[in-house]
Amino acid sequence: MDLWDYLELAAWAASALFGLFIVIDWIRTDSTYDEEFLTSSREGELEALTEEQHRG
Amino acid sequence: MAKAEKIEHVGLARVLGPAHVWALGVGIVLVGEYMGWNFAVGKGGAYAALMACWFAGILYTCVAMIDSEVTSTVAAAGGQYTQAKHIVGPLMAFNVGLYLVFAYTMLEAANAITVGFLVDTVATMSGHQGGVDQRPFIILSIMFLAWLNYRGVLATLTFNLVITAIAFTAVVVLFLTTAGIFGAGPLRHADLLSGQAALPYGWLGVLASMHFGLWFYLGIEGTTQAAEEVRSPARALPFGTLAGVMTLAIAATLTWYVCAGLMPWEYLGQSGVPLFDAARLSGSYGLMVFLGIGTLFATLASANGCINDASRAWFAMGRDRYLPGWFGAVHPKYRTPYRSIIFLVPIALIFALGAPLDQVVTFSILSGLLEYTFMPLNIILFRRKWPLDTIKRGYEHPFHPLPAMVLLGLCGLAFFAVFLGYGTQLVAMIAFYIVVSLWFHFWRYRFVNRGAQFTMPWPKPRGY
Questions:
Q1: Which parts of the chain span the membrane according to its record (chain A) (predicted)?
Q2: Residue B5's CB: how many other CB atoms inside 10 A?
Q3: Is B338 near chain A, with CB under 8 Å?
């Protein structure tokens, strides 16, 4: 085993970690919020939304 | 569910500036200077590649000008898909959306394959025996960039800005070091480009080299995908896109000049990493390391921008129900199209791990070419339906309809060039788009959210 063999293992492990983060957060998000809310983005509504959030 | 009650809507975050738009466009493309463009040299010699570089430069300048005008008024995610939806019609929009997703996802896969190849090259150069397993590095590049894109667009494109700037600086430094400006340089254009080497396959070679000449600029049109996330679309999009195409024209010419002066065309036409090879031939270890880092950064920046763009196009199609509405979701915390990002990860992985690089690259080029062919039609219809005095544009491109005509003519040339080398793939790709068009027309269109399609506050089109 040399440095490159360890780097291969590290790359596998890091890939799994990034994948795991994405999947866990995806499941958590989908179970926390309404589907209607998550898909509420509408083209052309952005100006109004930005304005609303700016006012807090 | 409490949060959902507090805020009624969630949308993409408008946080980007012109520099991010530049980083998105140039970031996707700059890898083409580091590798790929030189296959044009193999098709017709170094001079043919230079002509292809400039013809492609004209093609993409037309693309950038047309895109800048239209997208400065259609400020929504989806880029050319959204333009087609507003200006041409649903079937064109569906096809353009698919061109975009295919072009960027294939390019992302090609970049990931290249990351694996680069790691293997460095391992071999450092004395590692037997080569490395490239798969974990290919997967890591896709997973890391997908995670970054998932977490937010500002961090994603700021990252792109930094690594793209470093990769571009590396090209400039290589030119300054080798061009002989500060003393005698190693370039030998007179020896390498004379006699038979000037145009080894004649003018047919020039035509054939157009195929890979596109590689110098392919993807710059991706800047439009940021339309819904820039703070000032009317200013940032034209500025970022036009500055991007100028940067690329400079980088492309410098790249050709250095490489054609250091390597014979027979070698340059087959090189896997021509700029890195040029740095090695310069005899400077520091330059070699810098260009090695530049190659890796350019590759990562391209894959990163591709994930950003493909997911925005997929998201926009989902939001309009051209695809299942499930894809139209936005992450409430990170404000990204997270389901579209996730969905495209396995597709990119399948192509990156299972398909040969040249096939992946060709499918990307073909999808891009189909998209460019749509643009002249788009701008002609746009100007006819909404003349200059009816809608205020952030940018008005000059000499209309000349750029549209030039673009159409150059696209025809490029299609012929691709047909010379990859005729089967071209026919297969067109057959694929015909089949999916029939599916969309006879089945999917019934689910489209027709009432919410036309969102721009424009007057009625002239003649309707």
A1: 6-27
A2: 9
A3: yes
Nearest beta carbon to residue B3 from set A33, A36, A49: A33
Residue-range domains of chain B with CATH = 20-451 (1.20.1740.10)
At B310, give phi and psi (nearest 5°).
-60, -40
Q: Which residues of A touch B77 (CB under 8 A)?
A: 43
3-state helix, strand, coil in chain A (%, to 5): 80, 0, 20
Q: Is the ipTM of this complex over 0.95?
A: no
Neighbours of A22 (CB within 10 A): 20
Mean pLDDT per 10-residue segment, chain B (464 residues): 60 94 96 92 94 93 93 88 93 95 92 94 89 95 98 97 97 94 86 90 91 89 92 90 94 96 94 92 92 96 97 96 96 97 97 85 85 94 94 91 95 88 88 95 91 82 85
B184 strand-pairing partners: none
To the nearest whole Å, the CA of A24 is away from the closest chain B CA by 12
Res. A47 pLDDT band, cuts 50 70 90: very low
Among A43, A46, A47, most B C-beta atoms within 10 A, so best to mutate, is A43
Structural tokens at position B100: 């975009």
**Structure confidence at residue B1 (pLDDT):** 45
> Which residues in chain B touch residue A44, judged by CB atoms under 8 angstroms apart?
76, 455-457
Distance, in Å, from the CA atom of B239 to the CA atom of B222, rounded to the nearest integer, reads 14
pLDDT at B305: 97
Task: Tell me, letter by letter, the H, E, C secondary structure of B145-191.
Answer: HHHHHHHCHHHHHHHHHHHHHHHHHHHHHHHHHHCCCCCCCCCCHHH
Residue given tokens 């353009």 in the structure block: B96
Q: Do A40 and B9 touch (CB under 8 A)?
A: yes
Distances from the Cα of B197 to the Cα of B33, B44, B189, B276, angstroms: 22, 9, 11, 23
- Chain B residue with the nearest C-alpha to that of A2: B128
